[in-house]
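Appendix B. Raw example, untouched.
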Amino acid sequence: MRHLAIAFVLLASVAPARSEESRSPGILKKGQRVAVVGDSITEQKLYSRYLELYLTACLHELDLRVVQLGWGGETASGFANRMNNDLLPWKPDVVTTCYGMNDGGYRKYEEGIGKGYRGAMADIVGRCKKAGAVVVVGSPGAVDTLYFKNPNTKPDVYNDNLAHLRDVGRELAQGQGLPFADVHEAMVTAMAKGKAALGDAYDVCGRDGVHPGPNGHLLMAGAFLKGLGVDGEIGTFTVDLKGAATASDGHRIVSSEGGKVELESARWPFCFSGDEKSSGGTRSILPFTTFNQELNRLTLIVKNLDAEKAQVLWGPASKTFTRGELEKGVNLAAEFAETPFSEGFRKLDSLVARKQSYETVMIKQTINSFPRLVESSGKDKEVEASAEALRRVLVETQERMGAEVRAAVVPIKHTIVVTPEK
């Protein structure tokens, strides 16, 4: 019983801190375990949250398990030193990595930087592959061209360094036959467009120049979702004004009469926050990225519209489209700021945020200390057993929280009304 007693003491010490396939040709399969790994940008729990939100709500049928293992200040070699204890016991099927920001040393690129990064990433990839996991090799992001302040390195110089490390990561992924996520290019491209449109003060990589706000993290999530190979097809509704309405998989027609269609959707679109100019939300970055076009398509097609235009009422809002637009198909997820899914998505986000906050405490304050604890005890067998007993308790709690997240995605009833305009 001594090892159980030690386990409960350890648990008390952290309490105060608070066989369906993917629809796409991507790598995700039903029931897989996905680990999101990286430095302080991952530990911000923003892009990792958006990834889990997307994998849970937009690909709900896959029933995926997600954990984030971000660690502030970490390099690839730092993670390599802790992955046997912190990651591999969780038995991940898919691992996304995001290192390079700290590996670059915040100075001009030199070959030694690339060599060290390449070696550490190859070590991570090799051990993950040996354990049976697929690695989505993510590049580092970028630094903000206005807000990055370093006495020795200008933003363009450090972004060049990060671009070199991106190339190292891509070469490694290609050589190992693994997917790659170009986070750097996504951020640099959108940052240039965003600042051109909204002014140089519009930050994409954060007001400290390194840690993005929600807008930059949405870009990161998008890059990883592309790396995962998701097809972005949330669903299609076809409203025939002279016939029956139809819906694609994941959605069910409850009733249909003329231009009014009631639906029930088990597959949710991704929903956004904030206004059109603030970096403190995800919506402002949308004009400068292809997130909705490539990853978030919930399409309405209207047939047999005799008028030149029609008003579409969906949930709390309405919008007018031309006949040509409706015949081709309009992306409801992109066109409507507030949707029938928005409230459920906000509640889901709260559950994901709570779970991922727990994961940071679980790993950084507890599980990561187990090897040192066992070593300092002289490898006492009961101490080792106690540590493993506590690991099981912590992971079981994380799994219960994950189950709560997945259970929150329930079919949502909503109505579309198409009214011809004279």
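End of appendix B.
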